[in-house]
Amino acid sequence: MSLSRTLRAALALLLLVLVPGLQACSSPEIKAGPIPSKAPVVPLEPPGPYRIRPGDELEIRFFHTPDQNVILPVRPDGYISLPLVYEVQAAGRTAEELRRELVERCSKELAEPEIAVIVRSFTGYFVHVGGQVTKPGVLELTGPRTVLQAVFEAGGMLKTASPKDVLVVRLQPDGGHTLAKANLEAVLTGQSADGDFVLQPYDIVYVPTSAVADVNTWIDLYIRENIPISFTIGYRVND
Q: In the chain, where are the structural domains located?
């Protein structure tokens, strides 16, 4: 057996040790028809009531004194200013929580005030998409988006991506984080829709590198630079 033949055989054996499932890395079978899903799909903490954010536009209605009605944005510091209550924090609160405080504070000046707080427009929320996607970065979303939709808006996955191992990191109100796995391979092949859940503001979607891509990087760094042989993974494994 020639030296190159021996090296190829040795490298093939090494790759099979490094990546046990390499021989079965062909594209998964696509199943046509409805995608099964559990009901309901709750991979992360369900979203609660909407909380006002800086940049939102609020309408404050005073039913008995309409001359006090006002439409105003929430300032970057999260506060709004009203003649009767001066400064009041709006960001981080629900419309009902803000309404109750306004009623309490306006009661000092008005008899039995009836107030409504309406969120007229919402600021676009942001989702971070990184890893093995064509255009990693921050996406400003003006409506609901699922994990797969966000990945597509980031240009789709690269060939080096591992769609079955996508991760979603979610910020919690207490400052902690929740981590969930989103198996997009199962979604794309029609096996399960569980991994394509709706994102929340400031979620981070991370698409990791596949094991085969890691092996290719290892080959580039440690083998191709040192052994003058031209080959591919498929040739070596099947040779």
A: 3-23+214-238, 31-48+124-208, 57-121
Domain 31-48+124-208 -> CATH class:
alpha beta
**Alpha-carbon torsion angle 167, 172, 176, 182, nearest 10:** -10
CATH number for the region 57-121 comes to 3.30.1950.10
Please say whether the beta carbons of 15 and 233 come within 8 A: yes
**How far is it, in rounded angstroms, from Cα 35 to Cα 190?**
5
As a whole number of angstroms, the distance between CA 193 and CA 196 comes to 6
Q: Please give the Cα distance from 137 to 207 (Å, whole number).
A: 12
Q: Would you state the structure tokens that stand for residue 16, as one six-digit string?
A: 């099979």
CA distance linking residue 119 with residue 100, whole number of Å: 15
Q: In the chain, what is the straight-line distance between the N-terminal and C-terminal CA atoms, in Å?
A: 13
Give pLDDT tens digits for 100-144: 999 998 888 888 889 899 998 877 678 999 999 999 999 887 778
d(CA 60, CA 140): 27
Is the overall model pTM greater than 0.85, yes or no?
no
User: Vertex 233, ends 229 and 235: CA angle to 5°?
Assistant: 75
Q: Whose structure tokens read 């969930």? A: 180
- Are 42 and 57 in contact by the 8 Å Cβ rule? The answer is no
The string of pLDDT tens digits covering residues 45-67 is 556 688 888 888 999 999 888 88
Peptide bond into 208 cis (omega under 30): no
**Dist CA 74 CA 76 (whole Å):** 7
Q: Indicate if the pLDDT at residue 34 is higher than 70.
A: no
